[in-house]
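Review box. Two proteins, two foldings.
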Amino acid sequence: MVLTERQRSDLHAGIYEYLLSRGPDFAVAAEAFAAASGVATEDTNNNDDDKNKNTENGDDKKKTRRSTGGGPILEKKWTAVPRLQRRVLELERQVATNARLHAHRTGGAADGSTNNMMPGRERRMLPRPPAMHTLQSHSAVVTSVTLHPVYTMAASASEDGKIILWDHESGEYLRTLRGHTNVVTSVDFSPGQGKFLASSSTDLTIKIWDVKEFTCVRTLRGHDHTISCVRFVPPPVGALFLEKQQKNNTNEATGSGIDPSDAGSKFVVTASRDATVKFWDLETGFCDHTISDHSDWVRCIAVRGAKSIIVGSSKGKEQEGQVSSSSLALVATSGNDRTIYVYDANDKRAKVCELRGHDHVVEALSFLCSTLLPQKDSSAPSKSSSTTTSTWDYLASGSRDRTVRLWTVANGGSCLMTFRAHENWVRGVLVHPSGNHIISCGDDRSIRVYDIKSNRCMRTMEDAHPHFVTSLSMHPTLPIMVSGGVDHTVKCWQLD
């Protein structure tokens, strides 16, 4: 390394000053070093001061900077180097973490680059221990968790009657929503911008919360027993309020109701121990439709958004209009009667299919993790598009019979495969956004990942929680999954 004349002069001065500071034992070495390097000593400095008074250009090369106190300058710089090195390492670790966290936005590698992606090394976006954050504030069992569609916000419901909002990226507590007088059984953010949060409780009420103001804007009543689950109903293709939302018009509530263009949905659907499934109009607050097909406690609901199927006409122009099971917005329900019913979420809520096969109570249902707003599928018919359609029709279920089943809701519905990896009740299931995996949790305290193509359990996270794992939620685009447990905690899992 080549030093400038000024840097070399400062280095020599620092060494000389250090040798002098070590006492008489180093005095001879200091004088010898000064003579060899030409460092200005105290005597020469006094002479230099007199000389500098008569020198206009002031370019005396022997005049050097000296320490202004607090120890020799060489010692200060020597101790500063390790501090800077530690700081550099900390920043490098932070950059690497941020690159892994946000690599999905550019399709890059785990280090944030896009040029070094090797074949077969794409990010599968699967959870891996240890947990990124463990969120603690509940005083009872966490019954439900959900993720905000836009912000890095997670919501958790608990038997302590509270709903707590968290920042899952930083692990910080945000806010507590209080209003229910008993166990909160389920929470769900509204589609689109996630402006509202719906919650259900054993106090026989459903509450709609304004996420921005942290206030309850509507309370729905009508069930005769415990309300087990609540979900926003996906809007149909071509819903007028969605067009209003896209034009960014000023949204004002109708009376004391909720504007569907704000909520991204016109209805919420609830399941109850009174064996009914009810659809509620968010604008009026009244029950719009009641389904009574179940013979026992309805415990879980899954919803799927609509897909606009574009079909080429004989003239070569594109037109919409043909409806298939893949294009419908669907609602699936199940519970103690072990039967899964699938309905059209809109219009007359006609039954699409019935799925039977579990030997015990069905605790959880899940369609493919994706946005609930209508999506367009303009791909031409091909072998690959038929595979996509079958993935879109996936429905997973978890049961107390310790099995996870994968169904298709197309062509009347059928069971595709059964996974028997859990050693206790299955309490939560997710169909991965890629359509290649299923994730489940249960009372054996584990979270398991299944590969659909190979029909096997490919990853087991033992002791994911110290106690039973009750619920799961995964973001459709961000690399984050959260889980809740009987241990009163919420855990955030980074996806690799």
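Next protein.
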Amino acid sequence: MAFRLLRIGTAVYRQGSARVFAHARCLSPCSPTLASVTRARKLSLNQARTLATQSSAAAARVAPLHDNPSGPIGTDALITPAAWVEVDGTVAVRFPDGSVSRFHGIWLRDHCRCPSCFHPVTKQRLVDTSAIPLSIKPAVMSVEGDQLSILWETEDAHRSLVSLDWLRTNSYAPKLGPPVAASTPYAAPQRVKRLWDASIADSLPTVQYADVMNPARDEVGLAAWLHDMDVYGLAFVDGVPPTPEATQALGERVSFIRETHYGRFWEFTSDLAHGDTAYTQLGLPAHTDGTYFTDPVGLQLFHLLAHDGRGGQSLYVDGFHVADQLRRTDPRAYETLSTVRFSAHSAGDANTLVEPAHPFSILNHDQGSPRSLYQIRFNNDDRSTLTGLAPGQVAEFYRALKVWTDLLRDPANELWIALRPGRAVMVDNWRVLHGRAPFDGHRRVCGSYHNWDDYRSRVKTVLDKRTVV
């Protein structure tokens, strides 16, 4: 059931500020067909004016608008979901909690989720967006249960069905977000990142190898490991057989392995098999790997297989925690490291010169408001020549770099731990910096790189149980 939207030509008629609503409860029953629209067009101007005013007034009596339509009404009020066309041609939708957001007609048509427009298996758009009229408007709208139904005023009279929860989650004018306390496959749970320092040594986030490798019980073991990676950026696994094969199988539970100029699944000792200080006995300061890649690796897995000497303890620092300290204690340095851009390189192997497609900052933020830090990208050893700085930026950059480095090296922020055969660790390379102490003797480590997007895909599907976009 639906309301007729009364039009003269292609415009919705309004009397003053009266609105013609589409409600779950129908006031003027009709079938959402093109024929009903055609009949509406034949109405005289006076008839349209009268019916529009009557329908709007009746609709308002059924579910009156709140004084603040963009915000929710008290939970004790009975709210009827509704949709109407605004004066500017946008479609306003009122949700069960009373909040209202507005959508352009072309946006709604482009995001139709019917099987003809959105493939139910591949989750890919099938509609030809460029063929949609830029000024497309609804002919008939109705709220049917938890769905908004729109019959479009086009030659094919296409009918779109869109979930109200999906619309609210993806709203933009204003952005409302997912329904409060609602379980929906459209939005990811917002887990709080737990910032940590050296004191985390007393309670390292750890799961068991047997649990991670067991695909039964709805992937509970793998989900627990992914949860630790997401929350802490650092996740240990105990009980791993001390072999490359078992370690590789562990990494592949998260995603396929990313191959680089260091190989696919790698093992390294201090033999300089590659031109990188990781293949020496030198100590390594806290850093992230692959700053010279356009797309730095997302995760890296480490497993110490053997060590018959001294030293070689592993170092981990929560870059998000240190960045938060920097932001609070020296906002100027924080801004400098968020805006000054430079390049990096990997050139130690013969016939290898890897450089990113564009310069980058140490602290990288998304473009939201407020902006959010999503990536630390720092390896002072791999930093290339500073050529893009303005004269006035040079002194401030080096000052900010020193403040940042001093915080990284503050013993209160450094987690030092001696890895052992049987304990592997997965590190979020976009958040946690790693290093090691110098060592002697034979030290054999294996591990792998994993792409960020593939890792996040597993978080969404295994941990969050998301199935649609």
